[in-house]
Structures are given as structure tokens and as C-alpha cells.
Amino acid sequence: xxxxxxxxxxxxxxxxxxxxxxxxxxxxxxxxxxxxxxxxxxxxxxxxxxxxxxxxxxxxxxxxxxxxxxxxxxxxxxxxxxxxxxxxxxxxxxxxxxxxxxxxxxxxxxxxxxxxxxxxxxxxxxxxxxxxxxxxxxxxxxxxxxxxxxxxxxxxxxxxxxxxxxxxxxxxxxxxxxxxxxxxxxxxxx
Amino acid sequence: xxxxxxxxxxxxxxxxxxxxxxxxxxxxxxxxxxxxxxxxxxxxxxxxxxxxxxxxxxxxxxxxxxxxxxxxxxxxxxxxxxxxxxxxxxxxxxxxxxxxxxxxxxxxxxxxxxxxxxxxxxxxxxxxxxxxxxxxxxxxxxxxxxxxxxxxxxxxxxxxxxxxxxxxxxxxxxxxxxxxxxxxxxxxxx
DNA sequence: ACCTGAACACCGTTCAAGT
DNA sequence: ACCTGAACACCGTTCAAGT
Lengths: 190, 190
Prior knowledge:
Helix content of chain A is about 70%, strand content about 0%. By secondary structure, the first copy, chain A, is mostly helical. Chain A has a domain of about 120 residues: Tetracycline Repressor, domain 2 (Orthogonal Bundle), CATH 1.10.357.10. In chain A, helix 2 packs across helix 3 and helix 5 packs antiparallel against helix 10. The first copy, chain A, is flat and about 55 Å long. The N terminus of chain A is likely disordered. At the A-B interface, helix 6, helix 7, helix 8, helix 9 and helix 10 of A face helix 6, helix 7, helix 8, helix 9 and helix 10 of B. Chain A binds a DNA duplex through helix 3.
């Protein structure tokens, strides 16, 4: 389990090991001590490379979001992109155990200029013709929907219950579709 | 802080004290030990009244959902009810510190007959004319949207960031409106 | 029936000290 | 520069024992 090899410990190796640990044990059992022992090191050693556990979770969340953006190339009508991004985001949450819960808890890792970050979030939709405030609304809505949906999916007993009473996958698709269509027909305001 | 008075310790008093503790210290610091000391008792005493911490969180989550349903009387067009319920649910999440995170983690507290529980969830919308599967889709979509939205809101640094780049309250309203309108115009399928 | 005391197996984080 | 050892102040939960 613990490979003492390759002592070169850095942030990337740390994040990778954290994902492996997450897959094996889940978010509740992802501890600095267990992570350290997987890396063949004592827990305090991690704090040389990272400020605290919250920073580690933030880096992990960023990777989950990045994977979703990578899966949704910017092309076509903005509605198509938004639907595609919604699907990709849910897949990305689901690809990692407790992915949605992790992203709900994680703090945004870049405390840099908020306006610049907002531009980056809005970028795919502004590139397809939306103005920035509308782009941010669409992103916030789709991201919230996907995060909420996968939060239930990631909750074991809740998922079991939901899977018994409805087709959870098909329903996500329908809900996402409804949301995007609604956003497209919203009354234009200030 | 610790009131040793009134030794009658039961589930209701326990849940009430847990909410008070949540308000003061947040979900991360809501521990069985702190809760016990607030009740003037040792931690193991709690386990006489409750199976484990997860059950306690489940009871708390149920109360949060119940408050939302209580705030949305069943009347008018189903779309109006759904919008109203969405708003009420977000308010209910926001009314308790870390309310959304709590509900994301909590397990459904009633391991009773799933079909009967589904009927109860769908009830407000079936009463207003929707068939059950459509009602469940609408509920799942709106609940997911509200939960996701408030998860970000409940995340301190994330909220600060979002509040700087958009009008988070007005955007919720617009997003919810879009979702409900989209659900109303969905193509009818099996 | 309801609660305590003591214990088990853990946490995140700090910090002097080692190399 | 990078890591260890020891410690601090915690966790959830179990269980014999008290009343």
C-alpha cells in the first residue's frame, strides 16, 4: 500500500495521491495522515508543500472542473455548448468518488483578481455571442444544477432511494434540457 | 453555555440543540461531544437517544425540507407552486448555517416504503394536475438547483467571489424561473 | 431506563529538531 | 530545503459500570 519509493514529493504528486486515496476510501476517510502514509512520509511533511487540507481540496476541485471544460469544446450554438458542458460537468463529478461533495466544500483556489476570473468562466459563452452577465447567469445555473444533482447521486442511501423511484440519468438529461431551453427564452432585462 | 437544567433529554431536544450548535459554530464544528456538553451531559449519553451522528443530521435535514414545504401552500398553477417551492427551499437552506451542505450529506431518515415516499414527494404537483413521473422530475430538478446554488452560497470564500462578479440573489430568481419555464415546455415523452 | 468513565482508534496542525 | 518526532487539542463510537 505504502510505496516509499521516489521521494520527490511535490504538489502534483500530492494531488494525484489524494485522488487515489479518495477513490479507495471516500471523502470522509481522506485524511492527511492516511495520505502521508500512502506517500511513505509523515503527516507534517505534507505541510511543507501545501498550506492546509482545504488548499488540497481546492486543487482537487479545480482539476474536476478543468476536466469538464476540456470535455466541452467551444463550438456551435451557445445552447448546445451549455448542454454539453452540463453533461460533461456531471460526468466529471461522477468520475471521482464524492466529486460533487468535494467541489461543494472546496474553496476557490485562486484568490486572484475576481473580474479576470469571471471573464474566464464566462469565456466559452461570450465567445459564442452572449454578453458577460448573461453568460455568468447561465454558468451559475447549470453548475448549480449539476452540483446539486450529483450531490444526491454521491449520497449512498439517497441515491438508492432515488434510483428506485425514478430514472435518475434520463431525468438529469431532461432537467438540463429544460434549464437550457428556459435560459434561452428568458425575458431580456437589465 | 452548558445548561445542566432540565434533564429530560429526548430526540427533539437533541435536534433543537444541534441546530443551536450549528448556528454558533457551523457544520464542521458540530460534534457529538460539543453537543453533549451544551446539553449538560457526556457524549455517550446521546447514543441512548440516537443511533449515530448521521441519524441526527438526517433528522435536521428533514426539518429543513419540512420548513420549505410548509412555506409553499398547494394552490394555483403547478408552475407557480414549483417556483414558490424553489424559493422557499433556498430560504430554508439559507435560514440555517450550512443548511445546504447538511442536506447534501444527510441520508434520507425514513427507510420505509420508497414508493409511498415518492408519492408524498410528488403529492403537491400531482394535486395540481401533473402525473407522478413528471412531478418527480420537476421536484428533483428544482431541489437539485436550489441545493447546488446554496452549496456555493454556504461556502464562504466561494460566496465572496460570486457576490463580487454577479447579483447572486437576482440570478437565482432568474435561473429558477428559466428552469420552471423549461420544464413547462418540455416535449412530452413516455 | 438513562447516564458516566474510561478507553479505542482516530483527526488537523504546529513546531522544535534533525539531515 | 525538506522531513521526523512529539505533542496539542480534538474527533465518533463502544461498553462495562453505576443509579
